[in-house]
Amino acid sequence: MNALLLAGGLGTRLRPLTENLPKPMAPVANRPWLEHLVIRLKQQGIRHIVVAVKHYPELIRSYFGTGDQWGVTMEYAVEHELLGTAGAIKNAEPYLEETFVVVNADIVHYTELAPLIQFHRRHEGAVTIALTEVDDPSHYGVVEQDEQGRILRFVEKPAPEEAPSRLVNAGIYIIDKKALQSIPEQREVSIERETFPMWIEQGAGVYGKRIDGYWMDMGTKERYRQIHWDLLNRSCPLPLPGKASGKGIWVGKQCDIHPGVLLIPPVLIGDRVRIGERSIIGPFSVIGSDSVIEGHVRCAETILWDRCTVRSGTVVNRCIAGCDVEMGPQQTMHEAVMIRTEAMQA
Ligand code: GDD
Ligand code: MG
């Protein structure tokens, strides 16, 4: 069984952060989410990973290459025009094995694939959709099931009063390749709006199974922030890069942190970070690798990507900054999302 990662969406709701990178490459706790995902899939026995990508394919390809460094084989199915979620799967067909797993690459999750695969092997259907329960299903694909788990109805983003349940598509599927025959080629096809309803109607056997563990779509800035808080307070158990130095404090390699700095947990600091005298970092802050924080800085509930500079006397509160952003000196920033403009034009 191999895996296909859908990494081609525009990431509109995460803009400007995703202005110049595919959403799944956005760092989550200082490491691209896609890298966490590759590591996790490998741990679960998946050694062949195909990435379906449209925007900035070279960025993903140059990061992972053949996948050697992660002990997996990685291949890339590049779309030249937007094909939609089912179109992307169809386009990747030559790379797929008889049964494969599809993962929406913007779902941050920590769950086990094995129960899903076992369930798929036991029923006679061609498709298994992982399900999770949410309070407001109107942002997701919502299902209605019978007692055996067969899906009777799949409605993508229904109006709140029209949702048939609170059980939603978790964006992880197990699919038998033979089901792809009925997906049209070379045009945009949405698996959620077109293919699932068609398969259900044709009686292809679409089943759903609840998954346990952590699950969150990182599609909005609020959820992107929430994922970090969940990682820092360990309600999401994905491993964090860096060495735990005290409860709730993780520090990367070769950092230079002045003894007069106060780190208020939980805090995650990348590699080669410098922090100057009397700065206070945390709680709930992530500092990207190679960042420089001068003295007398106050940084709370903030996520800085790599190579940021915060000049002295600056207050950064509830902000998210992309790579290479400079802040201060002597400024206060509250609830801002910043990226470096040259990066956007590149
Ligand atoms: N390759 C490729 N090509 N990937 C695509 C394309 C495309 O044309 N369109 C979307 N994707 C990728 C996105 O990058 C993302 O990883 C995934 O497919 C889902 O697209 P989103 O745009 O993030 O959809 P959503 O979050 O609104 O809804 C989807 O995810 C929910 C779970 O979070 C749906 O699958 C819902 O049914 C589901 O509940
Ligand atoms: Mg999404």
**Which CATH C-level class of the largest domain is it?**
Alpha Beta
Percent in helix? 10-25%
Return the CATH architecture of the largest domain.
Alpha-Beta Complex
**What's the total count of β strands?**
30
CA(first)-CA(last) distance:
38 Å
* Low-confidence sequence ranges: none
**SSE class:** alpha/beta
Indicate the proportion of strand residues: 25-35%
What oligomeric state best describes the polypeptide chains here? single chain
**Tertiary shape:** elongated
What strand line-up does the widest sheet have? 5-4-1-6-11-8-12
Largest sheet: 7 strands, mixed
Tally of helical segments: 7
Topology of this structure?
Layout: E1 2-6, E2 27-28, E3 31-32, H1 33-43, E4 48-53, H2 57-64, E5 73-78, H3 84-91, E6 99-104, E7 107-110, H4 114-122, E8 127-133, E9 141-145, E10 151-156, E11 167-176, H5 191-202, E12 206-210, E13 214-217, H6 221-232, E14 243-244, E15 249-251, E16 256-257, E17 262-263, E18 267-269, E19 274-275, E20 280-281, E21 285-287, E22 292-293, E23 298-300, E24 303-304, E25 309-310, E26 315-317, E27 320-321, E28 326-327, E29 332-334, E30 337-338, H7 341-345
Parallel strand pairs: 1-4, 1-6, 4-5, 8-12, 15-18, 16-19, 17-20, 18-21, 19-22, 20-23, 21-24, 22-25, 23-26, 24-27, 25-28, 26-29, 27-30
Antiparallel strand pairs: 2-3, 6-11, 7-13, 8-11, 9-10, 14-15
Helix pairs in contact: 3-5
